[in-house]
Each structure stands twice: as structure tokens, then as C-alpha cells.
Design brief:
Mean pLDDT: 89
Strand content: under 5%
Pfam family, one: YlaH
Transmembrane segments: 12-28, 35-55, 61-78
Distance between the termini: 50 Å
InterPro entries: YlaH (IPR025620)
Protein name: YlaH-like family protein
Keywords: Membrane, Transmembrane, Transmembrane helix
Largest sheet: none
Amino acid sequence: MQTWFHDHPIISYLLILAFTIYIFNAVFRMGRLPLLKEVIVHIVMAIGCLVLLVLQLDKLPIIQCMAVAVVMMLMLRGRQMYDKWRGKKGGDSAANQAEHR
């Protein structure tokens, strides 16, 4: 897999950029920024991803590590949505179970 990413640097860069943008939006974003600041942030991220691309091409598993981080974040998001759905479905049953313990 590592050699395939090395042979396709554009796809590697796009994956790194997509993972970086997702991680930034999911973890570090506090609120909406003005449009110019938003563009500057994404340009700086795109430049920073070039450094990660160099490390990826130098045989470090950057894409694989970022993919694991994104999968874990998606699992957390799914668990939060499940708990929210379960809380609405159960109504007061969760509160009643807590009282009986």
C-alpha cells in the first residue's frame, strides 16, 4: 500500500488534505470564521499538507495514521448519535434505571 501511495503522489496529497480538513473541522473548529480568514486557514492547511506529503513519500504511514484517526472520530460520532437516539426513544426509562441503582 505504501508503494502505491508513493507512485500516486497527487492522490496521496488529496487524501492527506481531505483528512486534515475533516480533522480540523471536527476537532478544532469553534465557530464560523469570516470568509477571508476561512480561506487563509485552508491555504495554510494546504501548504502544511505538503510537509505531510513529503513524510508520506519518505515511507512514513501518514495516510494510514490519519485514516485510523478519522475512523475513530466517525465511531465516536456514531456512538453519540446512537446515544442521542436511544435517549429519545427510551424517554424516561434511562432516568428510571438510574434511580433504581
